[in-house]
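Recall the central idea of this unit: under ordinary conditions, the amino acid sequence of a chain determines the structure it adopts. In this exercise we apply that idea directly, starting from the sequence alone.
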Amino acid sequence: MAAVASIPQPLPSAFDKSRLDDIQLTPQLPPHRPAVTSDSPSSSAPSLPTLTRLGVDELPNNLDALHIARVWMQSFERYVSSCEVEGILSLMVEDSFWRDVLAMTWDFRVFQDKPHIRRFLLDRLSASNLTSLKLDESVVQLQQPYPDLAWVQALFNFETDNGTGSGVFRLIPLRSSNGALEWKAHVILTNLDDLKGFPEKIGSLREQLPNHGKWLEQRRRELEFKDADPKVLVVGAGHAGLQIAARLKYLDVPTLVVERHPRVGDNWRTRYESLNLHTPAEMDHMAYLPFPSTWPRYPAGRKLADWLESYAQSLELDVWTSAEVTEANQDETSKKWTVTVKRLETGQERKFTVDHLICALGWTGGLPKVPVYPAMEAFKGQIIHSSQYNAARDYLGKRVAVIGACTSAHDICADLAEHGVDATMVQRSGTCIVSVKEGNSRAFTVYTQGGLPIEKADLMFGSFPGALLKLMQKRLAKVIAEADAELLDGLRRRGFKLSMGDDGAGYYGLVRSRGGGYYLEMGASQMIVDGKIKLKSDSLIDRFTETGLMFQDGTELSCDLVIFATGYQRPRDGMLKLLGDQFGGKLKPIWDLDAEGEHSGAWRDVGVPNLWYMMGGLGQCRTHSKHLALQIKALEEGLWDGNRYSA
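Accordingly, the structure predicted from this sequence is:
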């Protein structure tokens, strides 16, 4: 569940469009088109390296994964050190992938197949100067996720001129011309970990001397920026804004976080009371301060809200609450930002000149959407957006229609039904349903309590290029659906429209592509099966009436309250509301996947120099806050000129 940075005031019962400053009115959605679920890629698309395709019937029982990794790594290190591009390519299969995260390109890039990898290496291998390559022998293993897929996976470390990094390679078996089994790389990841000369101030590098009573006054001066303006200003103190602020603080980059709510965590605290995390705590740990091992696997939203508040205090982050950015302008020459911040409690304003401006407005940009239907103004009941819903006790005795069928809709309907409120879910298009029991246990196996260190787990999880990840997710989606067969069959019997996600890639494919369209089942789906939550899914809404909703099939649903659980605008829209339309022609899409399967705009170039967008789930923000902080620190210290490899 992504943090939402802006919570508008409740809508009036008489639907007044002129008062909807923060609500985006959108046309009614067209009928849903069934997702393509074929597991067979087109002839031009990548394919999984199945053993059959590789000409391997079976693997030896006594296979020594460590020896295989050592032999390959020795050759890889030799060729990289001598910049022998053809030698490196000889260690890879024809349709291999090389994903680089900042280490060689200062960007998030994927190069697929040998011709593209050759061009990349010819351009960047010598310039990057990879040295000190060393195999991490502690995590080498043979993995066989399916009977027809197998690879040796290993981690390695390296250095460049400007930093240190870590990587992943996966070796797949092939039959050589003489019939012997040989192992070549199918995937290589190179990832920047740290900048030379500018390490994070953690562990042995943290403050060592006693303070002797000076700490409180020091914190006051730091928090108010008495001595100098910050270098970076972050808008939004959700989990995204706090984690990038923490990363920058411990890289010695003074950072101010501005949050319009009275308390840190209010972006979770003010949402509906039944809100829970739907991803396991093992993968949601935050930078520098993991959740206690005593925590529930799926913490409540308000529990997380309190955690965020304590996180900001414990890490001594400089956060101004009850404050908002009222103006932000960029100097065309220096690219610095002049940002006006208003303290809402006093009305006082202060102008800062900062090098970088980071928007951390959440997955949605904080701006809700409400579709427009005819005769909405005639409805005599109340209309609200899901962001204004708090708890079922506010609607006891009401008849409620919830428009939408994804996470918020399910959570709200479950809360209403559990408290005896007559709740009907109005489904407009198919939803990908995955139970947390069957889904999370299969999708996030690298994150386990007491398992790999979180940094190594993140590296492995992020080492699959987007195109390959999609193919894996299509298989996984089918496996999970089979495990959830009883639940899904029950939903079908009720008339619930099911989806396998975009191109059959399941809910994680939807997370990656658009951050919606799914529900991780924590009880609400079963309530639909059991009839505790009513469902209207056989016709689209035609118009409102005085007493409810009229559908295209001529049926009517009487209700006293309509809740639009219809999602939010795109992050880019939230940025434009903050900055103004003068940047509209420059800003790239944010979160949309680019041609290489990487997220556009998030954590990387957004189209405007020194402007950034920090977003994602808790685990994504833990990982990519480091990546964004390294880019900013490199710019601040002159290690990087801002140019990215673009070929």
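The longest helix spans residues 618-636.
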